[in-house]
Model the fold of this input.
Amino acid sequence: MTDSNASNSVETQKEFIVRLANVVGDGLLCVSIAMGIETGLFQTMIDLKEEHKTTQEIADAGDFKERYVREWLGSQVAAKIVEYDPKDRTYWLPSQRYAVAGTVKASAMIMAVPNLCAAFFDVAKCFKKDGPRGVSYDKYADFDELMAGMNQEFFKDCLIQSFLPSMPKLHQQLQDGIKVLEIGCSQGMSTRIIAQNFPNSQVYGIDITESGIKEAQEKATEAGLGNVHFIVMSATVLPSDWSETFDYVFVHNVLHDLPYPMKSLHEIMRVLKKGGTLSVIDTATYSKLEDNVAKIPTFARKGYVLSMMNSVPTSLNNVDGAGLGAMWGREKAQEMMKAANFDIISISSIPKSTSLHYQCQKM
Ligand SMILES: C[S@@+](CC[C@H](N)C(=O)[O-])C[C@H]1O[C@@H](n2cnc3c(N)ncnc32)[C@H](O)[C@@H]1O
Done:
């Protein structure tokens, strides 16, 4: 049964119960995989290079307690991720399964489960009419770290290599030296990469989260970058003396999370110079549920959960927050950009990403 036909086929009660049981099994397995990533157990197994080892040998190799390792290995063998030989009670991780923890993005996607579930009961309370408005970012576990992991591939392999060169005029301006602003930069990986590759440009990164900006600044100092500036600041009201200051504004997977996205778009319009460029990178979703379910069923299954657990509650945590959610869709996105008087020059998909790039201009 595929994602897309599950709700259309005539499913019996018995079949539905089996499907639910599988959901529970996969959900719990996800927790165990996340445990293997968080503790470093998968890395220990990878370092052992398919050598067949006992629970004690694996525990010793990674400095773990054997009893915990044994239980974890049980779950991994049952899930057919780790292999087991009952003859000598040894375990190994086949190399074709190293991806379980061997790629940053895969690990980050798995880690989204415990990370976001750190706020599970806080989010649950928000559902009640008399419950809290929303949830603050600090309720999630390592949220900035999670974002860095999820987006690292795009930032490191595409941003400089293909994304910015796809706008030749802007690319040349970056080389010559311009002023760039990133809104919602989190730990500032993309901000630093832009600054590092365009030393003649001055690059500013702002975010509401102090922990992210602190990390961003520390990494910039470590790298000896003198042309990057990180500031804890809300995108709702930018400094009054920033009017017509920036040539380029970069907003990566942030707009739908903002409490007041329309106000922020107006502020971006104000701080951009005439002719300046705005890149909004956001989820390649549709504004209607039925379109998401039909056209991007796999992403929709995950996306609405991520949105319910984080995008909506963090935005609604502010008085009259918009709560657009990560599944807000391309139609709504365009409507809002046009309402803020931006000219949408192009909308394109991005390699190594499930996002769209809205290239906008201040005329
Ligand atoms: C989904 S994360 C994206 C982070 C980063 N751009 C990336 O793609 O990895 C959204 C970011 O928006 C920031 N944010 C939320 N509300 C904000 C506001 N009002 N002003 C500035 N940043 C905000 C959050 O702190 C968070 O770092």
In short: DSSP finds 16 helices and nine strands in the chain. The beta strands are 83-85, 90-92, 179-183, 202-207, 228-232, 246-252, 272-283, 343-349, 355-361. The CA atoms of residues 54 and 194 lie 47 Å apart.
